[in-house]
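Lab meeting, action items carried over

1. Structure of the two-component assembly. Owner: GW. Status: complete.
Input record:
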Amino acid sequence: MRDNRILLKKLLLIACLMFGFAWALIPMYRVICEVTGINRVVKADAAPAAGSSIAPGVPVKLVFDANVQAGLPWQVKPLVRSMMARTGEFVRVDYEITNASNRRVVGQAIPRYLPAAAGPYVHKLDCFCFKEQAFAPGETRRFPVVFVVSRELPAELSELTLAYTVFDVPGKVAS
Amino acid sequence: MNIADGTQVASHIQHDKPRGLARWLFATNHKDIGTLYLWFSFAMFISGGVMALGIRAELFSPGLQFWQPELFNQLTTLHGLVMVFGAIMPAFTGLANWMLPLMIGAPDMAFARMNNWSFWLLPPAALLLMISFWVPGGAAAAGWTLYAPLSTQGGMGTDLTIFAIHILGVSSIMGAINIVVTVLNLRAPGMTLMKMPMFAWASLITAYLIIAVMPVLAGVVTMVLTDRHFGTHFFNAAGGGDPVMYQHIFWFFGHPEVYIMALPAFGIVSQVIPTFARKPLFGYTSMVYATSSIAILSFMVWAHHMFTTGMPATAQLFFMYATMLIAVPTGVKVFNWVATMWEGAMTFETPMLFAIGFVMLFTIGGLSGVILSVAAVDIQLQDTYYVVAHFHYVLVAGALFSLFSAVYYWFPKMTGKMYSEKLGQLHFWWSLVWFNITFFPMHFLGLAGMPRRIPDYALQFTDFNAIASVGAFMFGFGQLIFFYNMVRSIRHGQPAPQKPWEGANTLEWAIATPAPYHSFVVAPQLEVGDNGVILEMKGGEHH
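Predicted assembly:
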């Protein structure tokens, strides 16, 4: 009988400890994730190392282009064909898009960079390519693109081209 | 020493059998409590089954026929909770109560009064679950896993569910402590650990799992409760908490829980198959070690339920390989059962049919489990009907079939009557056929992308859902055969001999049938072979 009581107490103790363990799991998971870094799904941008000055802007040639696939009812053209800018400064350029058909259509612009390696260095703040655009028959509209070319642009990329292709979105009719 | 001195029931044990309601309300006899457990779990099995039929009725055709989505979600949630905590776990505890003392030569369970408490906590908990359907907002609808943030938002039905889980947890921990103490301290002389029946081993290891993880479940639902009412933010992202943390803690309980429902089933078939194959259990020692290693591994695989939560690839790989590792000891067990049957002089009475059905269908469920363990595949199959098919193969054809096997196997010893073999076989073949018709198409539904816990579905899933629904209703009605067989046989069954099965050779068959109300008042002297086979017995009186 005494043996039974001792074992009973030990088992009850295990049960109580496991109840506490459930609560201890909360800080444990946090610590394990912090120490091992396995849960760092969203990484903060690394802060610039102390003392390093921001690289001065360097000149870069920007070329703007647009094209439409055969059979689609669009006319797309940049108002400026090319310009000189400096890295790290805001650039604004306007595009003019016309719905050349006699129906209402919804279009979506897809950007492309040449050379493709320049893509990560173009930081867009505003672009008509961010969302679908609805057009009345024959409507013409102007859209701005605002972007910054990063100061980290490698020196060998002194000229880059930003090109847009506009598609119509099937199944969508502008309201 | 008279072993009865070693238990609390020493003073009761000389009494006559109590009568009337008091016999059950104040029950301290392990056989009475075992009977209560078994009837309670049958009532819960029927309740959960009715909910399942509600689900299948709604899913018979696309669109909403019977229930609004809210009620449908409540049905899936309560079906899971009732079946897991109300039907399967109490049924195994009940069988352990009934058979363990008889199988290891103990006069009763170690703590008879606590045994009474652990049973009588169950009905109030079940009542809380059932009445939650009628409170404002209805029952809990977050799924049986009660994931945050769904569970931190529901109505008061969720609170009732949390309290019910607390009570069920206390009940099963007390039951588990009783089993551990009984098996470790009350075995008759000669019944050593490495000779005792596999059912005793499985119950012992399961009891340890319950003691280790039910408190974790109690802890995590308590956190949900404090998040709901006391302003904590354990799982509230807006307050700095983490809803995925809930899943981590829940599944730390949840995966061992899977084995709490599987290991006793392994124990049962390890008794039934040698009896009807008339051969000793193949590889008894490896069975003990396989069971233990499954239990230990079950603590290291919980995150395979969470492959789509955005876990880092390193963690996915760890949990994937750890999960696959469990297939090794499980495979050892399956091959041992097959090897036990190999060249055995098999006969196919109902318990054996259910045991063989268990081995075959559980293996199918185990293999779909291995498929799901592959992280890359699981991301496609997570929360689809493939998962539903998988866990019903291991829980219905696994746990439930083993329970039927056990009830038919020990029915003569419990009641002193024989069940109707004809009806038993009808019950088996009926269940086997309709079970597969219900759940096998769900594999296809899952592979085609049908999500679980949804009351409506896309048209291409109609045919397989209709088949599954017909199967489910037929399977459900078939359980009435079982009910009829039990009730009729208890009343009008043929008297059973002491040893109704030719190959039965464990301790419970060495005493009179039906098992005397107070058995092994004086501990027998035993000489025991592997798996509790009695080679020689001296003494062991009863009243």
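2. GW to write a short summary for the group page. Key points so far: Chain A is about 20% helix and 40% strand. The CA atoms of residues 85 and 97 of chain A lie 24 Å apart.
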